[in-house]
């Protein structure tokens, strides 16, 4: 699994690649532990390039989101589509995760929250 990072006006953009499954979920959690140790307080998690997610991936996202709340880090999810969107909807996590349609909308919302 590849993760691309960009910083835009104090918002950390995290672009996930490929699949979030049993083989990648732990790596993703460890990666986010490092991000949480940094000074970033606003994060956009972009799913544009994610093609698949399984229950391990869902568990990793839940852990990441819960940890961000504990640390008072604002995290928004964007560009969820296809089978990933279906899994999020079937698990009713679209009511739990803060999901926006585009990365730009998420950045605007986080910038307005200052």
UniProtKB/TrEMBL annotation:
Pfam families: STAS. Residues 1-110 form the STAS domain. It comes from the Bacteria. SUPFAM superfamilies: SpoIIaa-like (SSF52091). InterPro entries: Anti-sigma_ant (IPR003658), STAS_dom (IPR002645), STAS_dom_sf (IPR036513). GO terms for molecular function: anti-sigma factor antagonist activity. Belongs to the anti-sigma-factor antagonist family. NCBIfam families: ant_ant_sig. This is Anti-sigma factor antagonist.
